[in-house]
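Severity: low
Component: inverse-folding endpoint
Summary: output formatting inconsistent between runs
Steps to reproduce: submit the following structure tokens with default settings.
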């Protein structure tokens, strides 16, 4: 009974994380359209969340000595890279499209496993890659002569590539006796990402007056500070923390699959709140991307013929890597 209750609670927390992450683009796009540079919105998001998570970082000071490379890579790729490229992409293409492109990451991870780590993958996982790529072709409507915003598409793909880096870092940092506490990694990742983005975004040149005004949310004047508060507290801090807790309560595969709802949430919210209507082929393509991501993320690699200790730990490491990445979107 207790196990069932714990699993139900874990599913609820995972759903909360997906909904929290899914609302980030919808809240950020009006701020960008009100005059803020995408990089400035990213900086505000990451710097604000880093301040909130500062007490957590203080409790895990040992990570700076134990896992400096992990923290640096996490901050650069999973925080600064993913968020900057994603927010830059939504300034040029619809939120739902950008997030669906970003969901190629689980398929790209399998490419890393197959061609870089040289480990075999299942046929089901390969099918997931094919479906995801085919769905992406429908989302961007390649038959229309690439009339889609190519730069926006490339920025979204860059966000997906940064997520691959996070998956790999999670694989290295989440196992063994010297494993890193996920909350500590998130806290220092936000701090590191804020430092990197401070240099890149140069917030001292930001139009701070925008935050004191209103932003247009599909015809509704909304206080800019309210949208920013949502991005920092709900779509970043709450989303990250609930994501980590859900992974601990559920199996990595289940938590990762539930997180795929983030793309659905973002697309629906963008449709309702921003008026970003997608054509029928794009909706069908989005479904294919999600199905492909589902298969790719839930299919573990074939066991390699190695010694028993490595064989028993291998699937867990791969699952941890795949599930952890959705904590960063």
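Observed output (run 2 of 3):
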């Amino acid at each position: 009974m207790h196990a069932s209750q714990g699993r139900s609670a874990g599913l609820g927390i995972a759903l909360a994380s997906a909904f929290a992450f899914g609302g980030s683009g919808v809240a950020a796009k009006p701020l960008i359209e009100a005059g803020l540079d995408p990089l400035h919105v990213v900086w505000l998001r990451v710097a604000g969340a880093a301040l909130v998570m500062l007490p957590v970082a203080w409790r895990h000071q040992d990570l700076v000595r134990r896992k400096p490379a992990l923290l640096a890579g996490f901050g650069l790729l999973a925080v600064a890279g993913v968020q900057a490229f994603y927010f830059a992409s939504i300034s040029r293409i619809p939120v739902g499209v950008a997030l669906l492109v970003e969901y190629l990451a689980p398929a790209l991870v399998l490419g890393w496993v197959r061609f870089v780590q040289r480990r075999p993958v299942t046929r089901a996982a390969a099918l997931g890659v094919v479906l995801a790529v085919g769905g992406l072709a429908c989302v961007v409507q390649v038959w229309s002569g690439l009339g889609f915003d190519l730069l926006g598409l490339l920025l979204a793909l860059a966000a997906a590539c940064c997520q691959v880096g996070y998956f790999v870092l999670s694989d290295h940092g989440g196992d063994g006796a010297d494993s890193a506490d996920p909350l500590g990694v998130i806290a220092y990742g936000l701090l590191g990402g804020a430092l990197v983005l401070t240099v890149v975004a140069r917030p001292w040149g930001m139009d701070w007056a925008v935050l004191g005004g209103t932003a247009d949310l599909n015809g509704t004047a909304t206080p800019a500070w309210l949208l920013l508060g949502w991005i920092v507290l709900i779509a970043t801090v709450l989303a990250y923390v609930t994501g980590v807790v859900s992974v601990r309560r559920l199996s990595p595969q289940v938590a990762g699959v539930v997180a795929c709802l983030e793309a659905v949430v973002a697309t629906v919210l963008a449709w309702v709140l921003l008026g970003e209507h997608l054509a029928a082929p794009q909706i069908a393509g989005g479904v294919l991307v999600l199905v492909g991501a589902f298969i790719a993320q839930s299919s573990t690699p074939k066991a390699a013929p190695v010694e028993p200790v490595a064989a028993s730990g291998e699937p867990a490491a791969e699952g941890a890597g795949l599930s952890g990445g959705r904590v960063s979107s």
